[in-house]
UniProtKB/TrEMBL annotation:
UniProt similarity note: Belongs to the TsaE family.
Main location: cytoplasm
Species for this entry: Fenollaria massiliensis
Protein keywords: ATP-binding, Cytoplasm, Magnesium, Metal-binding, Nucleotide-binding, tRNA processing
Gene3D superfamilies assigned: P-loop containing nucleotide triphosphate hydrolases (3.40.50.300)
Record keyword Oxidoreductase present: no
Lineage summary: Bacteria, Bacillati, Bacillota, Clostridia, Eubacteriales
Highest taxon in the source lineage: Bacteria
Record's protein name: tRNA threonylcarbamoyladenosine biosynthesis protein TsaE
Gene Ontology, cellular component aspect: cytoplasm
């Protein structure tokens, strides 16, 4: 699916719609250059899934955990990972394969080949707008 997002409200509305298509056990890969809106999408999804937690990009912590209504949401920022082997080294695979959670992964390039069934979201800057592309309908 492809949609042009002209405003921040458009981005938030798209993320709310996406949240309705996410279920426990899903892994969502969020791609886009710096400032494209990955964290805005994540914040809105986390809120739409019932969490009141404060959402920030976990660039240095690598992972934040948010409590939602009936699940935990893992928010990863893999910007600093250089290869998929790092997942094992850091123990992140234990979290990614936890079927009772949802995982939102920013900067998934180092691991995306390991998750063929993941939902993928790409944000592309286009002037002041963003182009949102997904491998699923929302």
């Amino acid at each position: 699916m492809r949609e042009v997002l002209k405003t921040l409200d458009d981005t938030r509305h798209a993320a709310e719609c996406i949240a309705k298509k996410i279920g426990v056990g899903d892994i969502i890969l969020l791609k886009g250059e710096m400032g494209a809106g990955k964290t805005t999408i994540t914040k809105t999804i986390v809120k739409a899934l019932g969490s009141d937690d404060y959402v920030t990009s976990p660039t240095f912590a690598i992972m934040n955990v948010y409590k939602a209504e009936a699940m935990a949401i893992y928010h990863f920022d893999l910007y600093r990972l250089t290869k998929s082997m790092d997942l094992d080294t850091l123990g992140l695979d234990d979290y990614l394969y936890d079927s009772g959670t949802i995982s939102l992964i920013e900067w998934p390039e180092a691991i995306e080949n390991e998750f063929k069934d993941a939902k993928k979201i790409s944000l592309i800057k286009d002037g002041e707008s963003r182009i949102l592309e997904t491998n699923f309908d929302f």
